[in-house]
Amino acid sequence: MTEEERKKYYKVITQNWLAFNEFLKHGDFSDDIECEMSEVIHKIYESNGKTSFAKSICLAILDEIERLCKEKRGK
Questions:
Q1: Is residue 3 exposed (0-12), middle (13-18) or buried (19+ Cβ within 10 Å)?
Q2: CA-CA distance, 13 to 30, in Å (whole number)?
Q3: CB atoms < 10 A from the CB of 31, how many?
Q4: For residue 32, is it left (φ>0), alpha (ψ between -120 and 50) or beta?
Q5: What is the pTM of this model?
Q6: Alpha helices (H) along 1-75
Q7: Given CA atoms 56, 60, 65, 67 in this order, what sign does their dihedral have?
């Protein structure tokens, strides 16, 4: 695998981590922030060429955000 190919994986992972970390730091688990984060993660997916790897990582992040929001809201 070339350096360029590895960087594509790195980019997907770091962009998702940065978005998820901002979500955690914000501490808002409302429906509004859940929708907002969904849009952010979708943009990350699109900006990374809609690859299957990007899709898997993005869906994992969205699933965790949804789980945390439901848990914090007591649902």
A1: exposed
A2: 25
A3: 9
A4: alpha
A5: 0.91
A6: 3-26, 31-47, 52-73
A7: positive
**pLDDT tens column, 15-72:** 999 999 999 999 999 999 999 999 999 999 999 999 999 999 999 999 999 999 999 9
CA dist 25 and 21 (Å) reads 6
Domain ranges of the chain: 3-73
Model confidence band, residue 74 (pLDDT cutoffs 50, 70, 90):
confident
30 DSSP 8-state letter? S
CA distance 39 to 49: 16
